[in-house]
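Students often ask why we bother predicting the structure of a whole assembly rather than each chain alone. The short answer is interfaces. A chain on its own may look different once its partners are present, and contacts between molecules only exist in the joint model. In this exercise we take two input lines together and write out one structure for the complete complex. Read the inputs first and try to guess which parts will touch.
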Amino acid sequence: MLSISLASPVPIHDQIVAGLRRLIATGTLTEGDELPPVRQLAADLGINFNTVARAYRELTDMGLILSARGRGTVVISATERPSGRPAEERRRIESTIAGALADARLAGFSPDEVRSMVDRQVQALWKP
Amino acid sequence: MSDPAIVLIRLLLLLFVPAMLLFSVLFVHCTPNRAASDADRATAAARLMALWIATLVALVIWGACVLSPRSLGIPALSWAGYASALLFFPLWFAFAMPALRMRSPAWAGPHAVGSPTRTASLVNRSRENPIGIGHWIAVVALGALLLGTILARGWARPFDGPSEQLRWMIISIVYALTLLVALGFQPVAIRQALREPEPLDASGSEELRRMYDAARTSRIRTMFWLVGAALPLLLGALLALSVWLDRPWAIGVVGAVGGTLLGLLGAWFGVRASLRRVRIAETRARLEGS
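Now the answer. The structure tokens for the assembled complex follow.
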């Protein structure tokens, strides 16, 4: 199930990309799973066709999905194509984590609460 | 007045047209007013008033067309009276639908009800086309049979004059084109219906899926059998009768009864489809709220 929020300040195509990446990362969508056609997903979400098409293009560039004429759009990998060198990837992810942790601290969560949140996410993503 | 077709058409004129014109306003009255705020309730009342006024204007137009041929001696106006049933469409789409949307947001479409969060199933559900190749063969064969019946008139016996021959040629061409357009439009319309939005609730409820499946199947079947099959076949039967028989009253009876039946069936299925959409939107809102 993919959800987007029209009230969110995050652009809709970014929400779709993030939602699908999360579903692939958690194993909800696995290699070979067929995604709904662009028009159908756009109609079901009540958004513009081009927004979904743009999200699918980004996921294709990341190496997660592939659209082929007559075969639809399929998940082809659970691992993204690296967008830079490993050291750069690591820096990017650390920066994202730092931003999320800063958000948690500013929101008043204690280190233990944050640790438990992180543990829950790690268990969800790396479950056996 | 001895012609039974004229009697039947006059009867339809007297009953069918005002019923069509009154339908929208009666339907809106029967729809529960679930406007969320006082302002919306006031707007709903204003729109209902506008619908009443438009309905009265339409009834006056119909009444004038029905009564004036005798006093003014313009027989064509009685046909205009019959055609004033078409005023149903502006009444429904321009006045009744805005009033219904204000009375219940579920009338405004699948995305009008519920939270700003929208959810779509990622399971690539197959949306099955209920129209099989056998149905197509049956309709095309019947259409071709009627076209053949019209064309056969040209070789069966000589025409009374060039004007009758020209009339036969025009009828043949018009029916061939009508058949082509009516049947050619169907695959496009079916493809469109198979792609219509079917947003699910966050849990992807099975109840909602079943409702979507039933609504979609019914809509496609109605569209195919009513617009793709019954309408061109009725026209074909009328045209075939008109080139073979010299009995205008028989054609009038078939046309009046068939046309009225098709109109009533179309209105019935259209309203039923709208009510189904509303029930789906309300179910989705209930599931999202629970």
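Check your guess against this: The CA atoms of residues 52 and 105 of chain A lie 34 Å apart.
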